[in-house]
Amino acid sequence: GLAGPLHGLANQEVLIWITKLVEKIGKTPTDEQIKQYVLDTLKTSVVPGFGHAVLRKTDPRYTCQREFALKHLPNDSMFKIVSQLYKVVPPILGDIGKIRNPWPNVDAHSGVLLQFYGMKEMNFYTVLFGVSRALGVLAQMIWSRALEFPLERPKSFSTDGLMALIAKQEKAAAEKKAAAEKKAAAEKKAAADDKPKA
């Protein structure tokens, strides 16, 4: 489900962690204070919102949310801390060496955006994730039924790849139809030729 040990409640955990950071070192911490807070966190746990099971770079969803925040809430204190974390945390995690992806994921940012826009009930954050995931699954189901494919992975096809595949299938269908029409015409002609003349 969306609340298990490997997935659930991640953006809530990030928001709680950032809130504790603010309580301990204030709303306008220095990079050095954040670095020390991160190092203290790493002594007993992980820094929530960083790393991804598949990606090996900054999560593009994080990047999209960051660009949105830069445009719409650049002076929000929580966003400023998220921005500092983006700058401070990856080098620390990279220096540890055991972490394959020290970059932020979507959860590093989403909770702060939801809070800014008035969504204070953290229990609903996972619901929003589930709804968006359901829409993605529905879209994938339509594609898989249309193309007669099994479950697809993110690396399976780009939109360009899907369009090329559709064009290839349309061409094959047109060639098959043309061959069938040609065969039917040949059979009709052969039947007419075999018909006794009166």
UniProtKB/TrEMBL annotation:
Q: Which GO terms describe its cellular component?
A: mitochondrial matrix
Respond yes or no to whether keyword Translocase is given for this record.
Answer: no
Annotated GO biological processes are: carbohydrate metabolic process; tricarboxylic acid cycle
Gene3D superfamilies named among the record's database cross-references? Cytochrome P450-Terp, domain 2
Looking up InterPro entries in the UniProt record yields: Citrate_synth-like_sm_a-sub (IPR016143), Citrate_synthase (IPR002020), Citrate_synthase_AS (IPR019810), Citrate_synthase_sf (IPR036969)
Where is it localised? Mitochondrion matrix
Which UniProt keywords are present, listed alphabetically? Transferase, Tricarboxylic acid cycle
Carries keyword Transferase?
yes
Pathway stated in the Swiss-Prot or TrEMBL entry: Carbohydrate metabolism; tricarboxylic acid cycle; isocitrate from oxaloacetate: step 1/2
Gene Ontology molecular functions: acyltransferase activity, acyl groups converted into alkyl on transfer
Quote the Pfam families the UniProt record gives. Citrate_synt
Major localization class: mitochondrion
Q: Which family does it belong to?
A: Belongs to the citrate synthase family.
Indicate the quaternary assembly. Answer: Homodimer.
Name-wise, this protein is Citrate synthase
Tell me the classification of the organism that encodes this protein: Eukaryota, Metazoa, Spiralia, Gnathifera, Rotifera
